[in-house]
Amino acid sequence: MRVGFIGLGSMGSAMAARLIDAGHELSVWNRSPGPAEQLAQRGARRLDNPADAFSGDAVLTMLADDDAVRTVVLANDALQRAPNKKLVHVVMSTISVAFARELERAHAATGLALVAAPVLGRPDVAAAGKLNVIAAGAADAIERVKPLLDVIGQKTWALGAEPHKANVAKLAMNFMIGAAIEAMAEAVTLAERYEVEPDKLMALITGTLFSAPVYATYGGLILKGEFMPANFKLTLGLKDVRLALAAGETAGVPLPFASIVRDNLVDAIGHGDADKDWSAVALVARRRAGLDGGTRRR
């Protein structure tokens, strides 16, 4: 397939590389030139204007937030300028529900198909093609981009014809990850205060009731204090929890624990941890418990 790819951060670059390796004809754009140049060396065509990515069979956007998608796609008139009206736009970014609905209206006005397909996984999972893809949109549009989603992820979870439903599910999942990190941080801190060895508690957690990937991955980071380099920055975690809270407020759904996670992420950022992995929120629990000022772990 002829595919445009916009947004080449650590996740986007890993996904784009897999598409190239699978034999798809890729045209790429990124705000900073370095990642695009690296993919060009692997056979991608580097674009000077992101709107030019909307000229093939599909275009995938993996941008940081609402503002980035709005600037690159909507403000650039990329939808109106697309020459192929059968093109499918796959938005893989984690965005607000309100903006997802705005994108639905914008695509309907131009006649272009929209599929929301945010993913679950970190860059190393993306590089291995083991992401889980949460997809929503018209069934025929999802089917048309299925060969791409199959390369990027190990499974696609279809959630209906309205694209914003995938964004709701993604925010719900990211909130649950944040809640799991917070729960593990508090549990490990409690155990450490009573001189229970943290590694033994974490083995108990991940080997019994909580034997799930999110606990194993983030539990290991909390235990080792390996917060740099960040595969998912604290600031991005804060953004996603805020989006979940906004979605809840709009729908009249209180999310009290999400408020706690948000406040602790703000606390961590206020103490200089903004560029660390969002599992570094564990330092907040340690600091409050008086364990080494919360700074022993890297």
Provide an overview of this structure.
With about 300 residues, the protein is an alpha/beta fold. About 55% of the residues lie in helices and about 15% in strands. Strands 1, 2, 3, 4, 5, 6, 7, 8 and 9 form a 9-stranded mixed sheet that branches. The chain is globular and about 65 Å long. The termini are far apart.
Structural class, from helix and strand content?
alpha/beta
CATH fold type of the largest domain? Rossmann fold
Q: Note the main sheet.
A: 9 strands, mixed
Mean pLDDT: 96
CATH class of the largest domain: Alpha Beta
Mind telling me which CATH architecture of the largest domain this is? 3-Layer(aba) Sandwich
- CATH homologous superfamily classification of the largest domain: NAD(P)-binding Rossmann-like Domain
Provide the helix percentage: 40-55%
Distance between the termini: 44 Å
What is the beta-strand fraction? 5-15%
SSE pattern, N- to C-terminal? EHEHEEHHEHEEHEHEHHHHHH
In short:
This protein has 298 residues and is of the alpha/beta class. Helix 8 runs parallel beside helix 13 and helix 9 (198-207) runs antiparallel to helix 10 (213-224). The chain contains 13 helices and 9 strands.
Question: Topology of this protein?
Answer:
Blueprint: E1 2-6, H1 10-21, E2 25-29, H2 33-40, E3 45-46, E4 58-61, H3 66-74, H4 78-81, E5 88-91, H5 97-110, E6 113-116, E7 119-120, H6 123-127, E8 131-137, H7 139-152, E9 153-158, H8 164-193, H9 198-207, H10 213-224, H11 234-251, H12 256-270, H13 282-288
Parallel strand pairs: 1-2, 1-4, 2-3, 4-5, 5-6, 8-9
Antiparallel strand pairs: 6-8, 7-8
